[in-house]
Design a protein that fits this description.
By secondary structure, the protein is of the alpha+beta class. The protein has 5 helices and 4 strands; from the N terminus they run ββααββααα. Strands 1-2-3-4 form a 4-stranded antiparallel β-sheet. A hairpin with a 2-residue loop joins strand 3 and strand 4. Helix 2 crosses helix 3.
Length: 105
């Protein structure tokens, strides 16, 4: 299984890295509160945390819920293909189609 995944969407290139359990737990802790119990929100945040670069420019890891939301705004419609790439990268059913659809709403 690969350690990274490249996504081409709308003229941009996104590179995601595989996240271990510890990094996924760090995202849950950073988000905290009710948002950490919101599976679609959490799935999106974990996928966004995996983004290493956009168009070859490194993306610093998000360190607050606001930064996750800013990154989601920056990606716009690219959030869905990024989440799908994250699911492929993990190959474990992470970010199911239903979660991706819920996160878009």
């Amino acid at each position: 299984m690969a350690d990274s995944e490249r996504v081409e969407f709308d003229g941009h290139t996104y590179v995601l890295s595989k996240l271990g359990t510890g990094k996924q737990m760090r995202v849950m802790r950073m988000i905290g509160g009710e948002a950490a119990n919101n599976q679609p929100y959490l799935s999106m945040a974990i996928a966004l945390f995996a983004i290493q670069s956009i168009d070859g420019i490194p993306v610093p890891p998000c360190d607050s819920p606001e930064k996750f939301e800013q990154l989601a705004d920056r990606l716009g419609e690219a959030v869905q293909p990024v989440m799908e790439a994250f699911a492929r990268l993990h190959g474990d059913g992470t970010n199911t189609a239903e979660e991706i659809e819920q996160a878009k709403n």
